[in-house]
């Protein structure tokens, strides 16, 4: 049997790099597309073996001409690009070495006082989370041709995190709908809850993940699943490893449709 190939757009991001790592572990030929075309930096040496087995390519997701000619060689494509806020400063804070007071102040400073008229039109929820996914899916379908039904994985979300604008979730749902309407494409929508990274050092994301897990445990031990509103509000966190493993299981099983966070959390 030939080796399977996969293209991960956003492959050097928080989840994307784990999808690449697990793909290498499972024997896939993995190509990671990102704006820089470079592997993630500042990772522990243990990551070097799998990083060296990934092909790193530069591409602009909103410009299909930068990647469309390369898509025919892949069995599957993953769209793992998203954002919680349109001001991208929060990403540097969320994954930095942990200093609670400093990071809280930096995050607050990065999000307050932004001028909507000064925003880059390419860095909106609509552009990044919806339009880029639709453009990528169209280019993939055209590259593969009729009758093949290639697999397209979209990293979605189960709910809107606190303090995050509503458009974060609505644009993901709009993307899910538009992708599902495309004939000849096997779409898998991964509705992830808050994600953490296994074996990571202390940082704002890992601390917040611990609080999310604690909140879910308290809910389960007090009211259980009796209140649907609370169930939708307080979701169990998942690790990037759980998301990546579930993604490949769904790819290899021929599944299409929505994958909910409850199923991901069981992996």
TrEMBL record:
Residues 6-87 form the NAD-dependent epimerase/dehydratase domain. Pfam families: Epimerase. GO terms for molecular function: protein-containing complex binding. InterPro entries: ComplexI_NDUFA9_subunit (IPR051207), Epimerase_deHydtase (IPR001509), NAD(P)-bd_dom_sf (IPR036291). One of its GO terms (biological process) is ubiquinone biosynthetic process. Signal peptide: none annotated. One of its GO terms (cellular component) is mitochondrion. This is NAD(P)-binding protein. It comes from Suhomyces tanzawaensis NRRL Y-17324. The lineage of its organism: Eukaryota, Fungi, Dikarya, Ascomycota, Saccharomycotina.
